[in-house]
Design a protein that fits this description.
Elements: E1 8-9, H1 15-32, H2 40-60, H3 68-88, H4 90-94, H5 102-109, H6 119-130, H7 164-173, H8 175-180, H9 183-194, H10 204-229, H11 236-260, E2 275-276, H12 280-287, E3 289-291, H13 296-301, H14 308-313, H15 322-336, E4 341-343, H16 346-362
Parallel strand pairs: 1-2, 3-4
């Protein structure tokens, strides 16, 4: 069976920075007598984001909606709800950060199964591969997109990549289409070969059976039943579902791409050496970036993921605390001479991401 060769992080370079930072973050929660998990603000957001998907879906299934344009609006809201749940709810829950109770995290993380994705494969790709080996060639699947895109200097360049800074946005919009079609099936099969399934408690057969069940349920809810209930031409439904997923995919990609695929972040190829020269925390600081730290609206809407540095250092802490933690992280980084990548605005981060796409397409 093919497995990923193990990679080790340095136990010396950056150890003092890591110890000091962890000590200061622990002190922050202790001195302020607050939990690392969700607060009231997070619970209000949870209700809002879940409602943004399931209330429009309820109207689609209620027989009350028979208008083409109202149907389209409801599907559009479901696209926004999908992105909102993905960024703000299931993300924290599948990291075990939402609640100290495993059953609460499992329940909220499992909402992903109802909006087109699959929580087990998401955890394996995101928690195991992306967070453990951020921007590491051959390990982090987030920097290994379809071959028409190039996110890392360690990937082979093709002629078509010269234009990727123009067409990448189309592929970003198609991202969640892979959720509802073949991606989860391919990943589950691949992770079985790589030996990553051991991070989940269930067997391959059980995971596959549940995956099939949830995909069938999803298509029944968002396509089959609305098609039977709403008296409009059938061809509107694939149009609206395309719109719904394009909106969701584009939002998700625009949040995650500026966090790792920008000129300031590093890309590592460590497969031959078997080790990474920095401590884990230093590696995360070098491969991750924040954006728009002063935007309270963006912070609320995208689950605090404009503070990706803090998220990668402390993924088991609920995102509502990242803004306060960022001051501690930044000051500690400056004290130890560790890079702290951050762009002042969201649009500046997107511009820098575009710049790297253009560079990688030419060089």
């Amino acid at each position: 069976m093919q497995t990923l060769p193990p990679l080790k992080y340095s136990q010396k370079i950056g150890r003092e920075f890591t110890a000091t930072l962890n000590k200061r973050v622990r002190a922050y929660f202790k001195e302020n007598s607050i939990s690392r998990h969700a607060n009231l603000n997070m619970k209000i957001k949870t209700a809002f984001m879940i409602s943004l998907f399931f209330i429009p879906l309820g109207f689609l299934l209620s027989t009350l909606v028979q208008s083409v344009w109202l149907t389209g609006l409801l599907y559009l809201l479901m696209g926004l709800g999908t992105a909102g749940i993905g960024l703000s709810i299931m993300h924290d829950a599948n990291h075990g950060a939402y609640s100290k109770k495993d059953r609460v995290n499992k329940f909220l993380g499992g909402i992903l199964n109802l909006i087109g994705g699959y929580a087990p494969t998401w955890r394996m790709q995101h928690n195991v591969l992306h967070h453990t080996y951020t921007n590491v060639h051959g390990y982090d699947e987030d920097i290994k997109p379809p071959k028409v895109l190039r996110f890392s200097p360690n990937e082979d360049r093709k002629k078509i990549h010269r234009f990727q800074h123009w067409y990448a946005w189309i592929f970003y919009g198609l991202m969640t289409f892979s959720w509802i079609t073949a991606k989860d099936f391919r990943q589950l099969h691949r992770y079985k070969k790589l030996g990553i399934l051991k991070t989940e408690k269930d067997s391959y057969g059980t995971l596959l059976a549940r995956l099939i069940m949830f995909k069938i349920l999803y298509y029944i809810l968002v396509l089959v039943l609305p098609l039977l209930i709403i008296d409009i031409a059938w061809y509107w439904f694939p149009i609206f579902i395309f719109m719904y997923h394009f909106v969701a995919g584009l939002i998700l990609a625009l949040v995650f791409q500026p966090a790792h695929v920008i000129p300031e972040t590093e890309f590592v190829d460590a497969k031959n050496e078997g080790y990474i020269e920095d401590a884990f925390a230093i590696h995360q600081m070098k491969t991750t970036a924040n954006f728009a730290p002063k935007s309270r609206v963006l912070y609320w809407l995208i689950g605090g993921l404009n503070y990706q540095v803090e998220h990668h250092l402390f993924p088991n802490i609920c995102h509502v605390h990242y803004k306060k933690l960022s001051k501690i992280v930044r000051e500690t980084a400056e004290e130890y001479g560790v890079p702290y990548n951050s762009h002042t605005t969201f649009f500046r981060a997107i511009a820098y991401h575009t710049r790297l796409l253009k560079t990688l397409g030419k060089a």
